[in-house]
Amino acid sequence: MTQPISSCPCGSQRLLAECCQPIHQNPSLATHPEQLMRSRYSAHVLGLVDYVVATYHPSCEAEQYREAIAESVNSQWLGLEVINSEIATDVEGYVEFKAFYQEGDDQYCLHERSRFLKEVVDGNPQWFYIDGEYPAPPAVEENKPSPVVSDKVGRNDPCPCGSGKKFKKCCG
To answer: Are 111 and 134 in contact (CB under 8 A)?
Structure first.
């Protein structure tokens, strides 16, 4: 029997029961896009596929991608770093983050600027994940060696075709 997780996987340094778990039970408790993003990351760590599907914006029709979402959830998630979060308007917010995960012996970093929309559901405002973009890598300084780039594309990496979508939702 496994021990229950006491600290929240989102990296907040708070107890799971006081951080993401209440939002997993009622997503409308997330009053800021960063709270929803952190709870979605925690849901990946905890294997809560239903929660991840339910917190996609309805226009994403996430239910039809449940199998791919479940595959992503079942990765070995290693950590989360929130870089920036903001509420741009009353109904739109952004969170830039890096989520680290492992597949086999290889480790990857999903760096995304996620967009969230707020909708009213059953009379309560609720944030939903709608989409994300991959920030451009920093400009390479002259006379500096370029980093080594792997030919292997992780399923959460940007698709090499340039569509702006995750590889798993495009050519993967």
So the answer is: yes
